[in-house]
């Protein structure tokens, strides 16, 4: 591999004999390396912390050089290298007589010393260029390394894909545009599995097998499988591989629809574990008491727990495993939003693969599966996901048999670019590099959280304007504790029993924690314990305003907005968001016209009037209370998800308006976001006309009809031209209701 475009850090102080160092810099440049000169420890630290493309570091060592802060300064730079890079070649640039005084740990980090006054610059530069090339090869994970070599071979292909390394695209103008857009490399490496030397994800052989084993090591699993159809496929694989027709499965009611799909495929019978909700409408954890009682309905073959939740609540996975272990031999943690859990001490014990033989005896320990959307919070292409397995003697996992189910949910034409991105995602998280990247994301999230609170305080103190502002859903002490504490102390984020901020009850200390990188911004209107405030700023209006400014949030609730600080967050990116929130406040307080602020809505009138009208509507319908009833008083299952699907196949399904849907059975999943928890599952009875489900849906329908520009996000509801809701119901009888077309 060439070293073109690779940077080398060169830190030397003025006392280090200018001539030799100058010549060395010239020789490094001549060998194709870009030299970044740093004249002080501070400059060097900033390069080390911000430049991942560094290929080597040359660090001056001169005990007499005061500009360099002597050995202490050098030590600081070396330590920073160790905190970020694995195996980066580091050389000490020695101009004095010896390297005595170098601490022992530093010897481990450095690859050698160079003496610019003794050896020729060309010789030293050659040594360094060699080390850079070796390093750049060594950092590549198994599959991606092989893929690059394969690409360099420029073979002709006679197999699928038919675009043949991209050549087919060049034969048409649209194809040419695609080829130009993505560049040749994507197409050259989009290969079929007939390329034997790269291996196959279908039987986990070759370099792909090696990449999966490397990922298993990095994520702490006994076995890891790469999945190319998203974590939805991971969930179907695990669900379908662990429960058979008619067997009972304990299922977190706060589950993704792919869990439902797995039940439909397997014919298993779900029994639900019900999480709490708070006054903000956020879904909380399943209380420990519910897990302890989970066996009441009889034996079950496995349990599925969403960890973390969409809003960033993660469990002490070891405690959850201990509570569920008497009832089930297997636990499936859906960690779609938590692939980063294994890589920072803040999350110790919070992720599925933490349930190891070291923390739980084999007689009790359940087999654990963790399914992760690698693409959601780590760096990987969309659809890149993983299944991690840690089997226990109680429920062994035979890899060959498990693979039969894996194959049922995979494709026989997997995408090599997606596999390469999974391989690289694991490499990025390996060792010091993973902790460094997460520390950066967590630090940014904490700084954002603190800034929102301090802006709110400044506004309150400023007598000249109304005192309201947005808040952040978090423990109160987050506003005042030092950032370093908040980045390192898991207790700082715990949902402690009795603390007012979270609004949940029935917890144990340390059982559940808020992941700081998932930030819920709160708007005035309601509090976590359900109290209603006079001033209300519905979040949907804020979200529409932010979108107009080019800021798209992850999720919008009635009075909450969720933003994510992933590995892709750049420093200070959040400044724009705070600025926009302050502008929204000012526009509200100045009664600015909606048609100017958010022209896309097609509405007119002062912003505060719109906010007040929607706040009044949300409160008049008592949405918060209704939501609570929907999830306290669960619908009765009439048929299994599989039986409901059989009727769907036979078209024994009709769309029924809400006023006729009472006592009917749902044919498809109904999910209102937030809280994003299924309120009706296929096969469940919709209930009485004045029951919780229909009362809640009628309220949403009324608010939608009043504010059509802000229609709620509901999966499984069809709206007709007038905005009336219709539900898919199973047609057991001869009831003749004509379906409405989807709007
Ligand atoms: C997003 C999500 C999934 C599905 O993951 P994809 O990678 O989008 O297929 C599964 N479970 C939960 C909890 C999710 O949020």
From TrEMBL:
The keyword Lyase applies. InterPro entries: OKR_de-COase_N, Orn/lys/arg_de-COase, Orn/Lys/Arg_deCO2ase_major_dom, Prn/Lys/Arg_de-COase_C, Prn/Lys/Arg_de-COase_C_sf, PyrdxlP-dep_Trfase, PyrdxlP-dep_Trfase_major, PyrdxlP-dep_Trfase_small. Its EC number is 4.1.1.19. Keywords: Decarboxylase, Lyase, Pyridoxal phosphate. GO terms for cellular component: cytosol. GO terms for biological process: L-arginine catabolic process. It is an enzyme of class 4 (lyase). It comes from the Bacteria. SUPFAM superfamilies: Ornithine decarboxylase C-terminal domain (SSF55904), PLP-dependent transferases (SSF53383). GO terms for molecular function: arginine decarboxylase activity; pyridoxal phosphate binding. Residues 371-385 form the Orn/Lys/Arg decarboxylases family 1 pyridoxal-P attachment site domain. The modification N6-(pyridoxal phosphate)lysine is found at residue 376. PANTHER family: BIODEGRADATIVE ARGININE DECARBOXYLASE (PTHR45229:SF3), CONSTITUTIVE ORNITHINE DECARBOXYLASE (PTHR45229). Belongs to the Orn/Lys/Arg decarboxylase class-I family. This is Arginine decarboxylase. It comes from Actinomadura logoneensis.
């Amino acid at each position: 591999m060439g070293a073109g475009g690779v940077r080398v850090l060169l830190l030397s102080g003025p006392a280090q004999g200018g001539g030799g160092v100058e010549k060395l810099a010239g020789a490094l440049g001549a060998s194709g390396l870009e030299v970044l000169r740093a004249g002080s420890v501070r400059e060097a630290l900033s390069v080390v912390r911000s430049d991942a493309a560094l290929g080597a570091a040359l660090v001056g060592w001169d005990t007499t050089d005061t500009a360099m802060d002597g050995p202490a300064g050098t030590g600081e730079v070396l330590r920073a290298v160790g905190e970020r890079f694995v195996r980066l070649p580091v050389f000490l640039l020695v101009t004095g007589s010896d390297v005595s005084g170098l601490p022992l740990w530093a010897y481990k980090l450095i690859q050698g010393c160079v003496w610019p006054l003794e050896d020729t610059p060309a010789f030293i530069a050659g040594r360094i260029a060699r080390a850079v090339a070796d390093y750049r090869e060594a950092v590549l994970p198994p599959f991606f390394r092989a893929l690059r070599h394969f690409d360099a071979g420029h073979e002709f292909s006679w197999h699928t894909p038919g675009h043949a390394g991209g050549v087919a695209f060049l034969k048409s103008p649209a194809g040419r545009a695609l080829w130009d857009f993505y560049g040749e490399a994507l197409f050259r490496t989009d290969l079929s599995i007939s390329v034997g030397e790269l291996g196959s994800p279908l039987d986990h052989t070759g370099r792909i097998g090696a990449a999966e084993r490397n990922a298993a090591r990095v994520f702490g699993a006994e076995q890891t499988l790469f999945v190319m159809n998203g974590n939805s496929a991971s969930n179907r694989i695990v669900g379908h591989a662990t429960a058979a027709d008619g067997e009972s499965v304990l299922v977190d009611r706060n589950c993704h629809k792919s869990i439902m799909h797995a039940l439909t495929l397997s014919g298993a019978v779900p029994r639900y574990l019900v999480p709490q909700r708070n006054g903000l409408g956020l879904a909380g954890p399943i209380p420990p008491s519910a897990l302890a009682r989970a066996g009441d309905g009889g034996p079950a073959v496995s349990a599925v727990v969403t960890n973390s939740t969409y809003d960033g609540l993660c469990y002490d996975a070891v405690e959850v495993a201990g509570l569920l272990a008497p009832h089930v031999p297997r636990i499936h943690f859906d960690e779609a939003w938590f692939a980063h859990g294994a890589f920072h001490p803040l999350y110790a014990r919070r992720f599925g693969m933490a349930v190891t033989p070291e923390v739980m005896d084999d007689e009790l320990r359940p087999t654990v599966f963790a399914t992760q959307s690698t693409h959601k919070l780590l760096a990987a292409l969309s659809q890149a996901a993983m299944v991690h397995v840690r089997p226990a003697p109680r429920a062994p996992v035979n890899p060959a048999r498990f693979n039969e189910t894996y194959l049922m949910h995979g494709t026989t034409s997997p995408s090599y670019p997606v596999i390469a991105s999974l391989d690289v995602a694991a490499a990025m998280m390996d060792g010091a590099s993973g902790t460094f990247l997460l520390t950066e994301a967590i630090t940014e999230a904490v700084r954002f959280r603190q800034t929102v609170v301090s802006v709110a305080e400044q506004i309150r103190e400023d007598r000249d304007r109304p005192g309201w502002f947005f808040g952040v859903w978090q423990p109160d002490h987050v506003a005042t504790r030092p950032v370093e504490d908040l980045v390192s102390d898991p207790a700082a984020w715990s949902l402690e029993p009795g603390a007012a901020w979270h609004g949940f009850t029935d917890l144990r200390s340390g059982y559940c924690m808020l992941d700081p990188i998932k930030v819920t911004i709160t708007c005035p209107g309601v509090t976590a314990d359900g109290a209603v405030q006079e001033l209300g700023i519905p979040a949907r209006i804020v979200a529409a305003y932010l979108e107009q400014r080019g800021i798209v949030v992850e999720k919008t609730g009635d009075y909450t907005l969720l933003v994510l600080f992933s590995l892709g967050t750049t420093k200070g990116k959040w400044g724009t968001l705070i600025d926009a929130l302050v502008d929204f406040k000012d526009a509200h307080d100045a009664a600015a016209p909606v048609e100017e602020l958010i022209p896309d809505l097609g509405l007119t009138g002062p912003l505060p009037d719109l906010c007040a009208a929607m706040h009044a509507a949300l409160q008049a319908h008592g949405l918060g209370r209704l939501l609570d009833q929907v999830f306290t008083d669960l619908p009765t299952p009439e048929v299994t998800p599989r039986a409901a699907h059989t009727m769907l196949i036979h078209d024994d399904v009709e769309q029924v308006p809400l006023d006729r849907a009472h006592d009917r059975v749902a044919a498809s999943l109904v999910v209102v976001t937030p809280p994003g928890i299924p309120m009706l599952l296929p096969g469940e009875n919709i209930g009485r006309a004045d029951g919780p489900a229909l009362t809640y849906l009628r309220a949403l329908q009324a608010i939608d009809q009043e504010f059509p520009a802000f229609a709620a996000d509901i999966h499984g509801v069809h709206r007709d031209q007038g905005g009336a809701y219709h539900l898919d119901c199973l047609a057991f009888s001869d009831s003749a209701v004509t379906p409405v077309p989807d709007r």
